[in-house]
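Reviewer 2 asked us to include a model.

Predict the structure of this chain.
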Amino acid sequence: MTGTLPTHTADAQSARSAANTRQRVAEIAFEASDNPEPEQAWFAESVGPALAGFTLPVIAKATGVSTSAAAKWRAGLRVPHRRHRASLAGLVGVELPTSLREARH
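Predicted model (structure tokens):
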């Protein structure tokens, strides 16, 4: 095989860099806000199992992450960053605990 792989072109690298920058900016903005840290156990018991009913692209689109990250969450290999948990709870139709809903508003 000769040439450059499509994932290694300048355009692909630029797009990947821009996506990483957007994620980092969102993370910094979230950390600066007053959003609470939902319990990881609550997420693992209430939201995590329900993700099995959704495709990776749907999970990724709801949170703005890659399908790779969505796959890790859906498989229970990783717990998503707290800024994504409310979106995922909404996606699967699970309400946030009262203490977390009150803290968000």
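The radius of gyration is 16 Å. The chain has a mean pLDDT of 84. We have added this to the supplementary material.
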